[in-house]
Design a protein that fits this description.
By secondary structure, the chain is of the alpha+beta class. The chain contains five helices and seven strands. The protein has helices at residues 56-62, 65-72, 110-122, 124-134, 146-164; strands spanning 2-9, 22-23, 28-37, 43-46, 50-51, 76-77, 96-97. β2 (22-23) and β3 (28-37) form a beta hairpin. The longest helix is centred in the last third of the chain and has 19 residues, at 146-164.
């Protein structure tokens, strides 16, 4: 399984109620959602849409993704946005595998760099899955609340899988 989060841009609506939808990272309004794909990039599930300012790790904790993966007996590859979501007592029991993060004080070793490269290559299909989903023109004019957007995205998930599998 592969997991990632993305921002679906929305048209800005006025009022204080729309301020949580502003993503400082992307400098635009939108809705953030997480998706699971298989190893070929086929979208399997879309979690509930959240305001655009939501971080991947926060959304994963709210949706209890680690618990769902454990009950299903699955694991997932993820980017550094999910670092720290899965904190088992035994480091060998990770359900969400992320890369290594460098800091100013601690540079990555060549082995860690190679592991990040392999992980990035394995995560490419999830980006293709998002590209197929974001190709729907109806998403360019989205002006709705997260509840309705979730239903719309899940309907587009079914249509996307139908189109890709033709």
């Amino acid at each position: 399984m592969l997991i990632d989060g993305t921002l679906i841009p929305t048209q800005r609506r006025t009022g204080a109620g729309n301020r949580p939808n502003y993503s400082g990272k992307h400098h635009r309004h939108g809705l953030h959602f997480l998706a699971l794909t298989d190893e070929r990039g086929k979208l399997i599930w879309i979690f509930a849409a959240r305001p655009g300012r939501t971080h991947d790790a926060t959304a994963a904790r709210h949706d209890k993704i680690v618990e769902h993966l454990k009950t299903a007996g699955l694991g997932a590859l993820a980017d550094l946005g999910f670092l720290g979501v899965d904190k088992p007592e035994n480091p060998d029991d990770l359900d969400i595998v992320t890369g290594f993060k460098a800091t100013r004080a601690r540079k990555l070793t060549p082995g860690q760099k190679q592991a990040n490269h392999v992980l990035a290559a394995g995560r490419v299909p999830v980006e293709h899955g998002f590209a197929n989903l974001k190709a729907w023109r109806v998403l360019t004019k989205l002006r709705t609340d997260p509840g309705r957007a979730t239903a719309l995205l899940r309907a587009l998930l079914v249509l996307t899988n139908f189109e890709v599998n033709r």
